Amino acid sequence: MNTYPVWIDCDIGVDDAIAIMAAHALPQIDLLGISTTCGNASQENTYRNAHRLNGLLGTDYPVYRGAVSPLCRELLTASHFHGNDGLGDVDLPVPPDAVYRVETAWDALYDAAVKHPHELRLIALGPLTNIATAFSKYPDLPGLLHSMLIMGGAAVGGNITPAAEFNIYCDPEAAELVFDSGVHIIMCGLDVTLKALLRPADWDELAATGTKAGKFVRDCVQCAWQFSQKFGLSGVAMHDSCPVLYLAHPELFRAEEAGVKIETRSTLTLGKTVTDLYSDKQFDEKNATVVLDVDRDRFIEILKNCIKSI
Ligand code: RIB
Ligand code: CA
Question: Looking at the whole model, is its pTM more than 0.90?
Answer without folding.
Answer: yes
